[in-house]
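dude i think i finally got it to work??
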Amino acid sequence: MRASFALLLLGSLGSLGSLGSLGSLGSLGSLGSLGSLGSMSSLSSPSAVMAASDSQVERASLTGLTTISVVVEDLAAVAQQNGLTGAALQADVERRLRQARISITPDADAYLYVHVTVADPGPSSPLPYFVEVTLMQEVTLPRGLRTRTPLQCPTWWLNRLGLISPNLLRAAVGDRVDEFVDQFIRAYQSVNAKP
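look at this
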């Protein structure tokens, strides 16, 4: 049961598109240790494994950003059925950024990307979830002396993988997104003067 649940969890996250950042989750260990998350006796608080890219190098990439936009990925039906909506996440993220006096515009080149994936393992199991908040911005790779190729790349991120009972999903994911946005704000303010 535990190994099949772990495979379901990992299989459901295969469609994330940003599994490169999951590659830094070396602390997941074997499927057996991930599977042991399924045997928790209490789901009153979310169980989670976290990865981060919030070092001084990543923070330096935030220097000089004057305006950003916010993009919240569409949510799966199971998330919406449990009270989690993209519109509510978008409004909350934008509110937190504005309160921190970070300028937001819908057409900025740099954007804070909020990605939430929730899998549906069935009616009697906890919900596996993945939350990632990433700052995406244009970077340039030198290709010889005359050519430069602009790319949108993550330069700062936090993510967490965990399990939660369905009735706690909205609060747990909302809290996680808030935590990650607050960490982004601290990172941003550490390298940019407050307005």
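The mean pLDDT is 77.
im so relieved honestly
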